Amino acid sequence: MKKIVHIIPNFSFGGAEKYLLDVLRNYDYTQHEVSVITLMPNVHFFDTELNKIKGLSVYSLNIKSLKKITWVWSFYKILNKIKPNVVHSHLNLALIVLILFKKIIKAKYVLTQHSVYNNTSFYYKTLIKLTSYYDYVLSNSNYTRAFLIKNKYIKDSKILNYSLGVDFSRYEVDRSRRESVLDSLNIANDKIVIGNIGSFKFHKGHIHLIDVFEKSLKNKKNLHLLLVGGGILKKSIIEVVKSKGLANNVTFIDSTTNVSKFFNCFDVYCSTSVSESFGITLLEAILFQVPIVSFNTDAIPELVIDGKTGVLVEKNDTNQFSKELLGLLKTPSLIKYIKLNQKDYAEKYKIKNHVEKLISFYNTI
């Protein structure tokens, strides 16, 4: 039986981390011996969930500081003990670390490319160079694969498109809970709730979303913006909201494992990401049949089909975004049409279909 090892820096509330947890929860452990190694401490919720998975071996190094390089020896000992046939890495740190052992631990090395690097700094140029040492790169979308080929990360034949899947069973779609949740957040039930879930990072474009909301609120007074997530830019976005006098119209919620609670409240999901190689939260919005308005960038058009599963707007054009948002809210027939399309569209992204494809891939390499 083949031995598969997944390596990830740690488990937190990011899209790549939630995706890997979904894979591990839905894996057929009669097919392979599967282990996961995390380098740094996980968010407690993920430790609990990983330990519930029967058949999965979990190794947590809990590295507090990467500067103390003694952890490299601990990492090597775990890999050498497992003697894997396939080593599958996720995210940048894991990508770098595994290159250290490629000549020592004989296995097939696989990388899932969860994002693209438009940055031209030395660090990102190094990441691109290191990618070429992998035996296979799995892209999370058609856009990512095209980007990897264009920028010559690795030979075209070794870049395979494995669009991510989501475990829909962990969500509770129930709009009847909307009123009680809004009451708990002190949001009036007659408000139209504009929602967004994601880390407060530059590429997520929250600053654009605040601009869109401010413009839209001038024309439609019963809007309320609900932002869920944490991140390094959250405090600065909160200050922007206060400076614009929008504090009473915007609610901030910390990162949570219960995103269903909030998706059930959203009337429209807005994404102003300026770079997105897949977009798990967009797929979640589709599952909950929440109409989407989004910038048209990178892989987003693979999920947000303009006029069918949502509405697309030219990137960075907040004036047009506001117009499209307000136009959607004035057109109940379009909202109904989008929701009907969303119901069927989510089906092809079921995690079990993705896992079956992944198992087949491991068996062939």
Task: Give an overview of the whole structure.
The protein is built from 14 helices and 13 strands. It has 365 residues and is α/β, with parallel strands linked by helices. The chain folds into 2 domains: 3-165 and 350-364, Glycogen Phosphorylase B (Rossmann fold), CATH 3.40.50; 171-348, 3-Layer(aba) Sandwich (Rossmann fold). The strands form 2 sheets. It has a 7-stranded parallel sheet, with helices on both faces. Strands 10-9-8-11-12-13 form a 6-stranded parallel sheet, sandwiched between helices. Strand 2, helix 2 and strand 3 form a beta-alpha-beta unit. Helix 8 (206-219) packs across helix 12 (318-329). The radius of gyration is 21 Å and the shape is elongated. The model has no long low-confidence stretch (mean pLDDT 93).
Give a short summary of the structure:
With 365 residues, the protein is of the alpha/beta class. It has helices at residues 15-25, 44-51, 70-82, 92-99, 122-131, 142-150, 178-184, 206-219, 234-243, 260-263, 280-287, 318-329, 332-345, 351-364; strands spanning 3-8, 33-38, 56-60, 86-90, 108-113, 136-139, 159-161, 192-197, 223-228, 250-253, 268-271, 292-296, 310-314.
Task: Describe the secondary-structure layout.
Blueprint: E1 3-8, H1 15-25, E2 33-38, H2 44-51, E3 56-60, H3 70-82, E4 86-90, H4 92-99, E5 108-113, H5 122-131, E6 136-139, H6 142-150, E7 159-161, H7 178-184, E8 192-197, H8 206-219, E9 223-228, H9 234-243, E10 250-253, H10 260-263, E11 268-271, H11 280-287, E12 292-296, E13 310-314, H12 318-329, H13 332-345, H14 351-364
Parallel strand pairs: 1-2, 1-4, 2-3, 4-5, 5-6, 6-7, 8-9, 8-11, 9-10, 11-12, 12-13
Helix pairs in contact: 8-12
